[in-house]
Write a structure and sequence with these properties.
This protein is α+β, with helices and mostly antiparallel strands and 184 residues long. It is 27% helix and 34% strand. It is built from five helices and eight strands, in the order ββαααβββαβαββ. The chain has helices at residues 27-34, 37-40, 52-64, 113-127, 143-151, and strands at 12-13, 17-21, 69-75, 81-91, 96-103, 133-139, 155-166, 169-179. The protein has an eight-stranded mixed β-sheet, covered by helices on one side. Helix 1 (27-34) crosses helix 3. The protein starts with 11 loop residues before the first strand and ends in a 5-residue tail after the last strand. The relative contact order is 0.15.
Length: 184
């Protein structure tokens, strides 16, 4: 199957979370979360003064993309929306994609939702999409995320030295990979 449109409207259940298609109503939460420096420091440093209109445009572009699938993350127990994750630059021929996640609701940090989301998304990428490799990039100071990724079977395959500028310092960026053929 060379068309991802079938998968863009899927709901996927993890143990603690449900991944569902993002909706317009999610945009206002995203703007609030992405405007929080404590959340944003782990994401794209170019996100500044984000408006709801810009977030809706981003959402529309991802939904229309031929190589991205994005999900909202809901807590199963409560139904609360807590963040997003996505599979990006999906290449069905090469059987590879990039993974991104953020838990925007800080009250939900350190509760296992990121781990469950990562495992659920990777399983979906391998099982449903038939991919073999999932890659991601993470800043060296994001210790919590690095720990989650390692616990989910990702390994560091490259270090981009002093690749990221944050808080008046240059930081390394780790390239991590989960492969169905080579995990820890």
């Amino acid at each position: 199957m060379n068309d991802l449109s079938y998968f863009k409207n899927k709901k996927i259940n993890g143990k603690k979370i449900t991944l569902r298609p993002m909706q317009k109503k999610d945009a206002s939460y995203c703007v609030k979360w992405l405007s929080d420096p404590e959340v944003n420091k782990f994401l794209n440093p170019n996100i500044k003064n984000l408006t709801e209109q810009q977030e809706l445009e981003w959402l529309r572009n991802r939904k229309n993309s031929g190589n991205d699938i994005i999900f909202a993350i809901d807590v199963k127990e409560t139904g609360c929306y807590i963040g997003n994750c996505g599979l990006h630059n999906i290449d069905l021929e090469a059987k590879i994609c990039e993974f991104g996640i953020f838990i925007g609701d800080k009250d939900c940090w350190n509760r296992g939702y990121g781990t469950d989301t990562t495992k659920t998304a990777v399983n979906f990428a391998l099982s449903d999409l038939g991919l073999e490799t999932v890659r991601l990039k993470v800043y060296e100071y994001n210790h919590r995320a690095i720990s989650v990724y390692k616990n989910c079977g990702f390994i560091i395959i490259d270090i981009l030295k002093k690749h990221h500028f944050y808080n008046e310092l240059y930081w390394d960026e780790f390239v991590m990979q989960y492969s169905k053929y080579c995990t820890q």
